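Re: weekly structure request thread

Next one in the queue (678 aa):
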Amino acid sequence: MISSSDYGSHSWELLVTVDHQHEEVQKEFLLRVTGDLHIGGVMLKLVEQIKIPQDWSDYALWWEQKKCWLLKTHWTLDKCGVQADAKLFFTTQHKMLRLRLPNMKTVRLKVSFSSVVFKAVSDICKILNIRRSEELSLLKQSEDALKKKKKKDKNSKEPVTEDILNLCDSPVSSGLSGSPGLYSKTMTPTYDPISGTPASSTITWFSDSPLTGQNCSILALSHPNCSPETLAEMYQPRTLADKAKLNAGWLDSSRSLMEQGILEDDQLLLRFKYYTFFDLNPKYDAVRINQIYEQARWAILLEEIDCTEEEMLIFAALQAYHVSKLSLSSEAQDFTCESEVDEVEAALSNLEVTLEGGNTSNILEDITDIPKLADNLRLVRPRKLSLKAIKPYWFVFKDTSVSYFKNKESAQGEPIEKLNLKGCEVVPDVNVAAKKFGIKLLIPVADGMNEVYLRCENENQYAPWMAACVLASKGKTMADSSYHPEVHKILSFLKMKNWTMSPQAVSDPESIDMKPECFVSLRYTKKYKPKQLAARILEAHQNVSQMTLVEAKLRFIQAWQSLPEFGLSYYIVRFKGSKKDDVLGVSYNRLIRIDIATGDPITTWRFSNMKQWNVNWEIRQVAIEFDQNVFIAFTCLSADCKIIHEYIGGYIFLSTRSKDQNETLDEDLFHKLTGGQE
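Done, posted below.
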């Protein structure tokens, strides 16, 4: 019996559906509540009425019509706006999710559907032992890719069974928060920096984790490539518009999975969203390095990023006859064969290496010297309806500008022209086999981009000039500490490209072990026969055969980072005042307006010159203000404008990271920069 006092003038009935597995118990419950009852009180009443003895701690109320969680248990129903017409679901916050990793393996694990995606990704990365989770996010597969998959499944005579790695027994998967110890370097599992296998000092960690030795090898080691037939069945973007579709599905980092329509056991892609890989350390990052390598590899195989034939052969050589072979041999190794090293001792030895300073004798010289390059180069200016004009000049590079003179003797006077490279686009124009070492400069001018080519004689002349141009485009001079590493990186990449055919290479028995067409994109399998491909890959292999497994992966990543299109995420936009659509490329340090028909850059805007940006949520327009009173505004046509807004804020957030932060992240700052005020 219910007393009359319970039927007060302000009480009403609230319908709550309970998501439980007990078939004999009803799922819908009517609760008599008042507006001043808090959410915690509603949950308590509900559990008392259900009368099922079980742990309800992971359960929370989900408001179906408003698509939101009622997680603030001290708020009243009135404050939340819940009334008698509300449909509430009492359901678990942690649910199963299938994630397709960059290496195309699928893992199944429990993820928080009530935490914002930024936090959920952080927890996922703790399970997978990937540091720097802020560089990753979750992506819905594009519609075109899904259509191609459905067509493939339809044409397939046999039912497709996907090999799924089940990681349901992890602490996070059980509904508990990830152990904070995983983010402490002394607690993080360490790896052999040569082979990438778990070091013996942390084998005990793997025994308590879902990442057993076998599971760890799936995530941390590369595996044989797919067949050309499988590659042909995968979605490959053909145009800039196709590439823009790939980036349309990024989830909002400031909202939960459930709020974005993701259901239990759905499949999402876990990908590196931001192309700024901070503090890569082979000792701790075997899984992270392998997954970055795999994302780069698939981007090249599926032609999501363009590269020359010479570069494609280098990528093929690093994959085919090195990474794959070493991975297969590494799997056969016994993880416990290494000498036992105390974990604390290992951490101290790593600290010693980390704290080891560079050569300090050059510091004073770097401060007092004003670096300068001066040499004879050839200048090429493309002309419409005529041949390119190629002329030799005396070039002087100082600060962020390059000037050229008629000859060395006239360098004391006024230059013929002075080119300010700050904010320009620098594109390598190199063919090592043809002895072509060019630098393509796209310099911003009032009505677009001024195209200039510099031609160097050889790689030793090219590397310092190219490095100087790259730094100048970012507003840095040759006095910057990154100049000499940049020169070294360019030279090492050129050295990989510079191969000569050895007579015994063609008859190398290794060439019959693997199909060479598995390691290049379809364009090259159509162009060359398998034997021709094998011979050319073996030529390229001569320069990479002495590397270790991890070194080969890092060199692959470095070569990927050297490609002109690296790190660009494309979106179709309409600029304010324009009558046609353009493509906007978003990179870690700049925005590029690109002609959708030709693919040529029109204008570049650097983040370093950006004063502020905001979004008009009513008309979904992004507005950005740069130095020198430059204003741009655009609406996004291929995705929600929130995605671009988050990309810009995310890159600015990542630029604030430093090694002395002890890997702790200012999550509030991330949401402040990326969240927006809808």
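The first strand starts at residue 11 and ends at 18. The CA atoms of residues 58 and 530 lie 56 Å apart.
Next request, please.
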